[in-house]
Amino acid sequence: MTHDIRTLSLALALLSVTACSTGPATVASPAAGSSTVADREPDEYEDDDVLLRDHDVPHVVVEEAFVTASTPDDNIDSPASWMQDGRRMLVATAKATDQLVVYDGATGARLRSVGGSGDGAGRLRRPNGVATVDDRVLFVVERDNRRVQAFALPSLEPLLAFGQDGLRQPYGLWVRPHGNGYEVLVSDAYMAGEDAQGDDIVPPLAELGQRFRRYQVSERAGTWSARETGTFGDTGAAGAIRVPESLFGDVDHDRLLVAEEDVPTGTRLREYDLQGRYRGRDVGAGQYVAQAEGIALMSCRDGSGWWVASDQFADRTVFHLFDRTSLAHVGSFAGKVTGLTDGVWLDPRGDSRFPEGVFYASHLDAAVAAFDWRDIAAALELPACAR
Question: I need a surface site. Which of 9, 44, 46, 336 has the fewest CB within 10 A?
Answer without folding.
Answer: 46
